[in-house]
Amino acid sequence: MRAKLSLALAATLISAAAGVGAARAGETRCWVDRGVLVVPAAFGDVAGDYILDLSSPKSVLHVDDALGEGVETPQTTSTLRFAGETAPATLQVASLDARTLGLPSTIVGLIGADVLAPYVVDIRFSPCRVRLSRRAPAFQAIATLPLEMTDGVPAIPATISDGRTALAGRFAVDTGTAAVRLSSKVAALSRTPAKGVDPASRLDPPARLDALGLAGAAQRRLPAALADDLPPTLAGSIGTAAWSRYELRVDMRRGRLQLAAPPGTDVSARRSARSADSSRRGSR
């Protein structure tokens, strides 16, 4: 059996910063609460703050808000209004307490990959903006990665290392946590955590990953946690602490994820991150 990677326990959390300023037509402002990407949206009459999590295969309406609207069924269909788009959507009705307790925002739902799949999803972290497009505008990609849907979740190739052992695999694109979440089949904590520490916490990742190899570049000491809720074919998921270094374009219909340098960044300095795939296909 292959040895598991070891995650070093850590005491602090790296999270992305939310931006300010007006959103342009066709996009919406967003913010990052403790590593979780949050957007304003409305599902029927339930308007408020929604987690935007590409690593969730199903969108969810929080059960308390559903009951407040008289919805007592396991799922409900209505019109979702988000980022300038209006479309019918079916959301699961379930508790989001495990995802939201400890967030400063009052979360009424979660927008997942099922709702986002028809669109090109552009995410900029500073200032924080999300754009949905059917005909996407130009995008100055410095790296392009092949993206495949795995059990309804968009996933890309990447490599992880604990400084001694390296593992290549497929990882979900995760915008619901800062952490690199690793399947407990491939990683373990370096030591038993203190009492009360959750090894799988999304909001307080208890560990650090020595290195993440993504699009030809290495990122060091990212917040990390274990995960038991991932599809068995995935080694883990990659959260916002890694994505916030870029502008992100996720195109599930065409099967590609593209990265661009944030505004004000010297693009030439990031050319080392260009993948072999991007050199062939560019940013079509």
How would you sum up this structure, described in words?
- The chain has 284 residues and is mostly beta strands.
- The protein folds into 2 domains: 145 residues, Cathepsin D, subunit A, domain 1; 106 residues, Acid Proteases (Cathepsin D, subunit A, domain 1, Beta Barrel), CATH 2.40.70.10.
- The chain is 8% helix and 45% strand.
- The chain contains 5 helices and 22 strands.
Notable traits:
disordered C terminus, 2 domains, Cathepsin D, subunit A, domain 1, single chain, 284 residues, 6-stranded antiparallel β-sheet, 5 helices, mainly beta, 8% helix, 6-stranded mixed beta barrel
SSE layout:
Layout lengths: L4 E5 L17 E3 L1 E3 L2 E8 L2 E7 L7 E3 H6 L6 E8 L2 E10 L2 H4 L6 E5 L1 H4 L3 E6 L2 E6 L7 E6 L1 E3 L2 E9 L4 E8 L6 E4 L3 E3 L17 E8 L2 E11 L8 E3 L1 H4 L3 E5 L4 E5 L15 H6 L3
